[in-house]
């Protein structure tokens, strides 16, 4: 995936060991809703995120940091 892809809508994460912090607003690299980082596992590289659906339901999931980018 690169920034010239037509569905790429966010800024790639910088190449650092601690790129994401709790409170950062992110998206999946392939798009989707804005999500807030609520947990970071430094050992495994997993990022826990929460977001609110249009109907008001609060959702959460865990993604590898490589699948996320800072929201534009």
Explain the overall architecture.
The chain is an all-beta fold and 72 residues long. It has a single domain (20-71), classed as SH3 type barrels, CATH 2.30.30.40. The protein has strands spanning 10-11, 25-28, 31-40, 46-52, 58-64, 68-71. β4 (46-52) and β5 form a beta hairpin. The mean pLDDT is 84.
Radius of gyration: 12 Å
State the CATH superfamily name: SH3 Domains
* Average pLDDT, all residues: 84
Largest sheet: number of strands, sense, barrel closure:
6 strands, antiparallel
Strand content: over 45%
Distance between the termini: 17 Å
Write the layout of secondary structure elements.
Layout: E1 10-11, E2 25-28, E3 31-40, E4 46-52, E5 58-64, E6 68-71
Antiparallel strand pairs: 1-6, 2-3, 2-6, 3-4, 4-5
How do you describe this structure in short?
The chain has 72 residues and is an all-beta fold. It contains no helices and 6 strands.
What features would you highlight for this structure?
single chain; 72 residues; mainly beta; SH3 type barrels; 6-stranded antiparallel beta sheet; 6 strands; 0% helix; globular
